[in-house]
Amino acid sequence: MSGMHTHLDRERFGVPERWGGPVRVPLAQSAVYTRNGRGENIQYVVITGAPAVLYALNADTGALRHAVPVPGTNVIWAMAAASDGNLYIGGDSDGMLHRYDPDRRKLEAVGANPCGNVVWDLTEGKGGKLYGATYPESKVFEYDMNTGAFRDMGTMMEGMRYARGIAAAGSALYAGIGPKLHLIRLDKATGEKTEIPIPKAGGKGFVHGLSVYGGKLFLYAERTLHIVEERSGKLLRSIPNAGKISPPSPRGPRLCYYKQERSLYAYDLETDNSFFVADFPDNYSGLEARAFAWLTPARGELAGRCVLAGTGAFTESFLYDPAESRFVEVALEVEPNPVIVNALHAFDGRVYAGGYQRGLNVYEQETGRLLYRNPAMHQPEGIGDLGGAAYIGAYPGAGMYRFVPVRPFDYRQDPEGNPGLAVKIGDGQDRPFAITSGDGKLFVGTFPGYGTLGGALSIVTEDTGADGTAVQIRCRTYRNLIRNQSVVGLAYRDGKLYGGTSRAGGLGIEPAEPEAKLFVFDLAKEEIVAEVTPSIPGVDAPIEMIGDLSFGPDGLLWAAVDGTIIAVNPDTLEIVKSKVVYETKFRSSKFRPFYLRWGKDGLLYTTLGRRLTAVDPSTLQTVQLVDDEVHVMTVGDDGTVYYAVGTELYRLRRLP
Question: Which residues cross the membrane (predicted)?
Answer without folding.
Answer: none
